[in-house]
Amino acid sequence: MTLALITGGAGFIGSHLAHKLLAEGGRVRVLDSLDPFYDPALKRRNLKDLAELGRDRFEFVEGDIRDAKACKRAVAGVGVVVHLAALAGVRPSLQDPVRYMDVNVVGTQTLLQQIEDPETRFVFGGSSSVYGGNKDVPFSEQQAVDRPVSPYAASKKAGEVLCYTWHHLHGNPVTCLRFFTVYGPKQRPEMAIHKFARAITDGDSIPFFGDGSSRRDYTYVDDIVAGVRAAMERQDSYAIFNLGGAATTSLSDLVAQLAAALGKPAILKKLPDQPGDVLITYADVSLAERELGYCCTTPLADGVKKFCAWYVKEKSAGRLP
Ligand SMILES: NC(=O)c1ccc[n+]([C@@H]2O[C@H](COP(=O)([O-])OP(=O)(O)OC[C@H]3O[C@@H](n4cnc5c(N)ncnc54)[C@H](O)[C@@H]3O)[C@@H](O)[C@H]2O)c1
Predict the structure, then answer these.
(1) pLDDT classification of 236: cutoffs 50, 70, 90
(2) What pTM, to 2 d.p., does this model score?
(3) How many domains are contained in the chain?
(4) What are phi and psi of 163, to 5 degrees?
(5) Residues near ligand 1 (Cβ within 6 A)
(6) Which one of 141, 146, 284, 294 has the lowest number of neighbouring Cβ atoms within 10 Å?
């Protein structure tokens, strides 16, 4: 049974992936620093659930991807690495670009350098933000992505480039995945869907940037996990795939769907567009469909209901702020 290393596996997407692999009977090791970008207690809870499910098939290494020794220990004996550890989020990256480069770029290079087995497959958690202000939608992997509009996006583009160079020099199979706004249970608390649900539930106003016409391609976390799962099996060369919902929803529509699912009105606090934000994200997933068998199975309307059901349950159990 191949041992999979998931960096950032205590976080939102990583813990869903780890859960899936353990439920399949797989072996999982997580490397995570429990970074305080959001409450580490949420990450510890994810790890506890994984430890209960996986028992001796699950292992947690607390460590930083910028620490070569921690990475060396984490990659020992693994058949596949799924690299999700990062500082995520566009807006905070404008405040501290150097830290974003340190973690997302230096950290990625440090991790890659510790992998000595030429058979070890590597999957990189990239981002749709690399498409920047591209107007040509849907975004396809063939488009130029050398004009990212935030330090976060630049760090994710840099990650793809570092992965290519490492693949070129060492020959390991590498798959870079560009995730389009991922949501679902356990979503990061600062992300729009989670933040808006909290505000609607608490009767607070929602910070509503722009005129509500900006559009996002939202992807339910189970679909992302299925795409990552397929990418983990790729044996050849270097490739980049979009993983998205292949549909777009306006900010206004999203808020309306959340308010309807929670049965409470949304109070909007209108604010100007933010630097670093883009007007639209929209994935062309045809390459992932052909090569990975990727299929987006959860439309936003269903996913929002699932997210809200989870949110209400967790909130009423006192497990969320
Ligand atoms: N959620 C999305 O919509 C989305 C979209 C595009 C790309 N991504 C990418 O997917 C990955 C996972 O995102 P997420 O939403 O699950 O975020 P997350 O913050 O929940 O998970 C990231 C994990 O990385 C860990 N981490 C941070 N810095 C670290 C370091 N220096 N060393 C070790 N661990 C560290 C954190 O503690 C956290 O558990 C990230 O690489 C992110 O950039 C996410």
Answers:
(1) confident
(2) 0.98
(3) 1
(4) -60, -40
(5) 8, 10-14, 32-35, 37, 43, 64-66, 84-88, 103, 107, 125, 127, 179, 181-182, 188
(6) 146
